Each structure stands twice: as C-alpha cells, then as structure tokens.
C-alpha cells in the first residue's frame, strides 16, 4: 500500500501576474491536495518564494515537481525531503477567558513562549511561532477554554546550513544544496551587457 504523507516544497517564481493561479491550478487539475501555501519576497528583486505543503505519496510529489518545472514562471524547485531543513509557522489564536481561567490561560501561553497581541475583558489573542507540532499542541491546549478564532500563515522553510557538514550520501545522491545560493546572480557587468541601449 502506498504511503500518503505531507511533503514540503519551496518554489521560486517570477513576480508576474497570475503566477499563483497557474501553479495552484496545476495542483487542482491533477487532484493534488495543498494543505498549506505561503508566498513572500526573496533576497532577489523580482523573485518570490512559495512554500507548499502537498499531501500524497512520493510518486505524486515527483510528478508534481516535473509538471511545475515545465512552467515558465518557475525559476527553481527545492524539495525539502532530500535534506534536513528548518521550518516555522505563525498562528494567531483568540481564546475566550473568564476571571477564573485567565491565569491558567496566561500560564499555558507562557509555557509555549507565545506573545499576547490583544487583550480584552472576555478574550486574549496570542501570537505563536514554531514548527507545526508546536503550533498544533498550543491550539489543542487552548481548545478546552474555547477558541474563538485562529489564523495560521502556513509553513515556510529553508535548507539547514549544517547539511554541509554531513556526508552527502546520508540524505541523497549528489552534492548538498545547503551552502549554495538559491539563484545564481548574474554579475553586474554581464547584466549591463544585456541591457539594450535606449538612447
């Protein structure tokens, strides 16, 4: 039986109209389930980084990567299953409180190193940052008190730099990507050579 689990992908894309629509449509047409999606700017102007958590077996993920690589908008795909990575997620949780539960709710929040971002007479809103396990555990701890609202940003991830200190055969065949830039930046002289003279 094929194992279905979550896979974490980082996709570097060009900042162009409808890029997000084209990529999510590709997943939708093939029945891939996107569990989480976040988008943000990168260190390179004109390039954004999408982090997608897709559910499926390994074959499904490899097929999705091959399809994504055909898109003009996609600059590079990083499959985080190939090496160790660090990931984080942010969540806002609004919890109902009473005079009796206020102290206990605050104590639990402190144990999770969360931050209070809004205070009301009948509710507290917390900001929590961490990996998926920590976020889920915090929500479950607060559930008995009454969760009024939650909003999760979705996971973001980077390959661990420490992978460069580990033999490459431990995770996959080939050289580690840990200390390689996500994009090869063209030297300024080369860029200038390719810019047309408008005058």
TrEMBL record:
Give, as one word, the top-level EC class. Answer: transferase
EC number(s) of the enzyme? 2.2.1.6
- Tell me the Gene Ontology biological-process terms attached to this UniProt entry: isoleucine biosynthetic process; L-valine biosynthetic process
Does the keyword field hold Cell inner membrane? Answer: no
Q: Where is the signal peptide?
A: none
Q: Give every ACT domain span.
A: 8-80
Choose one Gene Ontology CC annotation of this protein and give it.
cytosol
Q: Give the record's keywords alphabetically.
A: Amino-acid biosynthesis, Branched-chain amino acid biosynthesis, Transferase
GO MF term (any one) = acetolactate synthase activity
Catalytic activity, reaction form: 2 pyruvate + H(+) = (2S)-2-acetolactate + CO2
List the InterPro entries hit by this protein, alphabetically: Acetalactate_synth_ssu, Acetolactate_synth/TF_NikR_C, Acetolactate_synth_ssu_C, ACT-like_dom_sf, ACT_dom, AHAS_ACT, AHAS_small-like_ACT
Known pathway:
Amino-acid biosynthesis; L-isoleucine biosynthesis; L-isoleucine from 2-oxobutanoate: step 1/4; Amino-acid biosynthesis; L-valine biosynthesis; L-valine from pyruvate: step 1/4
Family, similarity comment = Belongs to the acetolactate synthase small subunit family.
The protein's role, per its UniProt record: Catalyzes the conversion of 2 pyruvate molecules into acetolactate in the first common step of the biosynthetic pathway of the branched-amino acids such as leucine, isoleucine, and valine.
UniProt subunit comment: Dimer of large and small chains.
Query: What's this protein's name?
Result: Acetolactate synthase small subunit
Q: Which organism is it from?
A: Deinococcus arenae
The gene it comes from is ilvN
């Amino acid at each position: 039986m094929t194992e279905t689990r979550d896979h974490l992908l980082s996709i570097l894309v060009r900042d162009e109209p409808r890029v997000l629509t084209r990529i999510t449509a590709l997943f939708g047409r093939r029945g891939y389930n996107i569990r989480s999606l976040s988008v943000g700017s990168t260190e390179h102007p004109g390039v954004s980084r999408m982090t997608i958590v897709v559910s499926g077996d390994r074959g499904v993920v490899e097929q999705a990567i091959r399809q994504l690589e055909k898109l003009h908008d996609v600059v590079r795909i990083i499959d985080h299953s190939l090496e160790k990575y660090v990931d984080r997620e942010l969540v806002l949780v609004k919890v109902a409180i009473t005079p009796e539960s206020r102290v206990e709710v605050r104590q639990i929040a402190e144990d999770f190193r969360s931050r209070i971002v809004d205070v009301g007479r009948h509710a507290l809103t917390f900001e929590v940052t961490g990996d998926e396990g920590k976020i889920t555990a915090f929500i479950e701890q607060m559930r008995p008190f009454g969760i009024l609202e939650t909003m999760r940003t979705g996971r973001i991830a980077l390959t661990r730099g420490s992978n460069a200190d580990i033999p490459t055969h431990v995770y996959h065949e080939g050289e580690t990507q840990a200390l390689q830039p996500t994009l090869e930046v063209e030297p300024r002289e080369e860029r200038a050579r390719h810019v047309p003279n408008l005058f």
